[in-house]
Design goal:
- This protein is of the alpha+beta class and 232 residues long.
- The protein has 2 domains: 107 residues, no CATH class; 100 residues, no CATH class.
- The protein contains 5 helices and 13 strands.
- Helix 4 packs antiparallel against helix 5.
- The longest helix is centred in the first third of the chain and has 21 residues.
């Protein structure tokens, strides 16, 4: 289950932490924007720790013969792409074949796909944004396991800095929470650590039909490649 807090609850807790309930220099809109900035920082720590699986979304799309580049805006209609989680070729009958991401320096043996291929993209969305202002206090933020406290500590630091007050107590707690998020990211209770063995494959002799072997990300576009030689 989600541990969600409404924007109104977050703002109330922030005001209590910073004694800013009736501060004439900090309006509701400004506090909400400070919370938005702090939420984005918390989101990045969650993503960096490898704990964003809870938020992963998926879309399906198809390649076009001879077309190399596909903008994320055209692939993801929601317009909320942040990072790729995994990209698969849909071989049909429920079989998803993972694609390897290559660096720009590795594209020499590759060419654009030569046929229409169905793909499935799993991605991490951008951090949700709460709407600033009165009348939108029911919008929510999911702190997963109490990590909304990191958002509050980050926002409290920003407010204390604006007021030229001491923020060290909030900063220390913020760093403790970052360590906690990072430590949780290094634990996998489902399976022991193991090495994924990758073998060389020749595209002409592999047991799949779709001629896409790899992808690359540049700017706001994803590039799809077919390997005419050996996939290393």
């Amino acid at each position: 289950m989600a541990r969600t807090l409404t924007k109104g609850e977050l703002r109330t807790r922030l005001e209590q932490l910073t004694d800013s309930e009736s501060d004439a220099h900090l309006g509701t809109n400004e506090k909400d924007e400070i919370l938005n900035s702090a939420m984005a920082e918390t989101w990045d720590h969650i993503v960096a720790a490898g704990l964003a699986e809870k938020f992963v979304k998926s879309v399906s799309f198809s390649s076009v013969s001879g077309t190399l580049e596909y903008s994320f805006a055209s692939v993801i209609s929601a317009g909320d792409f942040y990072r790729i989680h995994a990209l698969y070729v849909d071989e049909g009958s429920g079989q998803l074949r993972p694609l390897k991401r290559i660096a720009p320096a590795e594209v020499r043996p590759f060419r654009p796909p030569t046929s229409t291929v169905n793909l499935k993209l799993y991605y991490i969305p951008i951090c949700p944004r709460i709407t600033a202002g009165v009348g939108t206090d029911s919008t929510t933020f999911d702190g997963i396991n109490g990590w909304e406290e990191h958002t509050l500590m980050t926002a409290a630091c920003a407010i204390k800095l604006k007021k030229d007050d001491d923020y060290n107590v909030f900063y220390r707690r913020k760093k403790e929470l970052e360590d906690r998020i990072a430590k949780m990211g290094m634990v996998d209770f489902g399976e022991p650590a193991r090495v994924v063995r990758k073998r060389k494959m020749n595209s002409q002799f592999t047991y799949y039909n779709s001629n896409i072997d790899a992808y690359c990300v540049r700017g706001d576009k994803i590039e799809l490649y077919y390997n005419y030689g050996f996939l290393t």
